Amino acid sequence: MKTNRVIFSLVCLVLGFLVAYSYQLTQREEKAGPLTDSQWKKTVELRNELIAEEKKNRELAEELHKKQNEVLQFEKKLADEEKVLSGMAEEAEQLRRYLGKVKVSGKGLIVTLDDGKYPYEGDVNNYIVHEHHIFKVVNELYLSGAYAVAINGQRLTRRSYIVCNGPVITVDGKQFPAPFVITALGDPDVLEKALNMRGGVKDQLVSENIVVKIEKSNSVEMEPILGDHPS
């Protein structure tokens, strides 16, 4: 860009000088009267030089225009590359969120599952939370647009595993007793409606004696997954 300014300044300087000189020469000719042969020859030479300089100025102007176009194209290319890099950075950030490598926070949903009240008759297993109950909630949350889910603070990844061991649930090797608090980041209205659909996940869990509590939250936070947890 600095080179273009130098060329443009040079063109203006030379052109101004030639115009001024031509004007002065014309004034002198008018005052001096008829030209002699040598004066006429000198005038012709000067005019030829003026024509040559004007041609050179046009060439410089064309070169300046060409350089300006090249600069514009280069700036456009840089802008396009910045957009691509920005898109790649955003995709990388989204991937890190999905893999649980960064802390995330925002609006979301808090779902609490607790064991039902045992009436002291029948099978007690019919009144406690099992892994398939948790799977129903987690799967529905993901299908409804949740981009991060945790159980009792243990953040889930695509390779997480959930196992029921009697009254406790094991999530990625960590055991948790009831109640089980499932937090999800996403649109709280959409997530809540998905779980509360008639005949949906909540109705199914309630029919299986599970106590279900659903709350919308404007502040859900999840810490990044550290160590050797599955990712």
How would you portray this structure in words?
- The chain contains five helices and eight strands.
- It is an alpha+beta fold and 231 residues long.
- It folds into two domains: 97 residues; 119 residues, Alpha-Beta Plaits (2-Layer Sandwich), CATH 3.30.70.1880.
- The relative contact order is 0.13.
Helix and strand topology:
Blueprint lengths: L1 H31 L4 H63 L4 E11 L16 H13 L4 E4 L2 E2 L6 E4 L2 E4 L2 E4 L2 E6 L2 H8 L5 H7 L3 E12 L9
Antiparallel strand pairs: 1-7, 1-8, 2-3, 2-7, 4-5, 5-6
Family: Belongs to the UPF0749 family.
Protein name: Division initiation protein
GO molecular function: RNA binding
Key words describing this protein structure:
231 residues, alpha+beta, Alpha-Beta Plaits, three-stranded antiparallel sheet, 8 strands, 53% helix, RNA-binding, Division initiation protein
Using the alpha-carbon principal axes, give the shape.
Answer: rod-shaped
Q: How much helix is in the residues?
A: 40-55%
Class based on secondary structure composition and strand pairing: alpha+beta
Largest sheet: 5 strands, antiparallel
Report, as a whole number of angstroms, the end-to-end distance.
Answer: 49 Å
- β-strand percent reads 15-25%
Average pLDDT taken over every residue: 80
Q: Which superfamily, in CATH terms, is the homologous superfamily of the largest domain?
A: Protein of unknown function DUF881
Rg, please? Answer: 40 Å
The ordered string of helix (H) and strand (E) elements is HHEHEEEEEEHHE
